[in-house]
């Protein structure tokens, strides 16, 4: 008879008269009443006892959800295989291209310099040729546009996407594209071309309702940005058929109480093509230390719960929300050797936060990418499965080793805040999934009526 043990990644908590089971590895989420929970508790305490029929059925459910696993099943090894498959998957390739380091805005906390190069014609050609050649040997190619503000170089975006789309059609390679923009330059003229350029996802950052957004994200040289950006978002949905918008809402001590107002203002947008997530204002630079300290003080010990309340609010209003940590079996896309960030001079950088001069570890040339092997190996060296802390950590199945930039550049493990708020994280996850399920049920009902 097979012998069983408890998974190391069960998180169990009460929610009113129910008990919720979340398994961080299988991502199973189940709810039971308290009477059933008491029986489950007995089974989990002695999983290998001879159980009566009723208990045996419950035990099978626990096995199915991965809450109980075979005694010889090695969860760490299983996670490692998942992680390595993603990190070293060579069937696809994802490029993030920064066509310029310049920006039309002057966000008060931005870590980028706003100065610096933009991509010239020669580099544009080299990059376009390189990606088109790569299309031959890949099943899937993605191009994400990033900056500075990439829409300042829309011609470059258009040129590269058109050329690569053509190559992908020739080689039957799947192509997709996305952009991170501040939205101010997302005019009707440009938006109309997004379907053709296959830019399916647009990420825009909001810093609160108008009064805060205008204060945090003014135009270079001064001037408000919220109204134009918001108008552009509204028009965007009418001018494109398939593209979706992801809104990243930056939260800080100043705008904290105004975030509900922002979520209310978003209600006029089509919810089926929009998703939202909330993040603390990101502090990447050395020069913004005062702001950094203010944000850290404000976040305090229950930082995660402070942010979670906006997820609860937005989900209840019917918005699709998402928790970035739940995406793939990696921590961030720059864990993958197939995620390549190209700067305006054709430099290859390790990640979008490590784009300062001196951090580049490669260059796109007419012969492909030439890497500085020492820097390259250093970037990919950290491995959660050789790190005793990570191997012991309950968040490992969702974190997979944390921010690489933190460990490479400061030697400190880049644990996300979910680590210190594991139950809150599991609660929020359960809640957003539950809301999603209920919304789908409502939509299905509406369809029946139609
Ligand atoms: S939370 Fe920290 S310790 Fe845990 S897996 Fe992530 S990086 Fe490692
Ligand atoms: S490595 Fe860290 S800093 Fe760089 S993009 Fe990933 S999570 Fe962000």
Automatic annotation (TrEMBL):
Cofactor(s), by name: [4Fe-4S] cluster
Tree of life domain: Bacteria
Protein name listed in UniProt: Radical SAM protein
Keyword entries, A-Z: 4Fe-4S, Iron, Iron-sulfur, Metal-binding, S-adenosyl-L-methionine
InterPro entries per record: 4Fe4S-binding_SPASM_dom, Aldolase_TIM, rSAM, rSAM_sf, Sulphatase_maturase_rSAM
Residue span(s) of domain Radical SAM core: 85-314
GO MF term set: 4 iron, 4 sulfur cluster binding; metal ion binding; oxidoreductase activity
Organism listed in the record: Petrotoga miotherma DSM 10691
């Amino acid at each position: 008879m097979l012998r069983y043990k408890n998974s190391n990644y069960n998180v169990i908590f009460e929610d009113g008269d129910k008990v919720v089971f979340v398994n961080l590895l299988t991502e199973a989420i189940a709810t039971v009443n308290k009477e059933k929970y008491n029986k489950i508790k007995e089974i989990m305490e002695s999983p290998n006892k001879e159980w009566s029929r009723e208990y045996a059925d419950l035990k099978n459910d626990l096995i199915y959800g991965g809450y109980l696993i075979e005694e010889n099943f090695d969860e760490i090894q299983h996670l490692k295989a998942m992680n390595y498959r993603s990190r070293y998957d060579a069937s696809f390739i994802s490029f993030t291209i920064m066509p310029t380091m310049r920006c039309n805005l002057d966000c008060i906390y931005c870590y980028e310099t706003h100065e610096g190069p933009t991509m010239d014609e020669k580099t544009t050609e080299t990059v376009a040729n390189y990606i088109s050649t790569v299309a031959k040997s890949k099943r899937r190619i993605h191009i994400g546009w990033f900056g500075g503000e990439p829409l300042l170089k829309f011609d470059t975006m258009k040129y590269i996407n058109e050329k690569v789309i053509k190559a992908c059609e020739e080689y039957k390679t799947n192509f997709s594209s996305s952009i991170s923009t501040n939205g101010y330059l997302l005019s009707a003229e440009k938006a109309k071309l997004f379907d053709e350029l296959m830019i399916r996802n647009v990420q825009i950052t909001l810093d609160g309702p108008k009064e805060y957004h205008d204060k945090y994200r003014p135009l270079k040289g001064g001037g408000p940005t919220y109204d134009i950006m918001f108008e552009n978002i509204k028009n965007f949905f009418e001018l494109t058929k398939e593209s979706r918008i992801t809104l990243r809402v930056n939260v800080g001590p100043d705008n904290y109480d105004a975030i509900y107002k922002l979520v209310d203002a978003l209600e006029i947008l089509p919810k089926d093509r929009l998703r939202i997530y909330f993040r603390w204002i990101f502090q990447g630079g050395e020069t913004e230390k005062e702001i950094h300290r203010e944000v850290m003080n404000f976040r305090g010990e229950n930082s995660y719960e402070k942010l979670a309340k906006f997820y609860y609010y937005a989900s209840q209003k019917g918005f699709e929300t998402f928790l970035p940590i739940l995406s793939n079996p990696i921590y961030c896309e720059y864990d993958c050797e197939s995620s390549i960030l190209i700067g305006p001079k054709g430099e290859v950088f390790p990640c979008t936060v490590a784009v300062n001069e001196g951090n580049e570890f490669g260059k796109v040339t007419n012969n492909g990418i030439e890497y500085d092997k020492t820097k390259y190996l250093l970037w990919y060296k950290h491995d959660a499965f050789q790190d005793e802390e990570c191997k012991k950590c309950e968040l490992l199945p969702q974190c997979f080793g944390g921010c690489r930039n933190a460990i490479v550049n400061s030697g400190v493990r880049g644990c996300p805040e979910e680590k210190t708020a594991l139950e809150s994280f599991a609660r929020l996850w359960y809640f957003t999934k539950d809301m999603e399920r209920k919304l789908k049920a409502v939509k299905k009902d509406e369809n029946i009526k139609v």
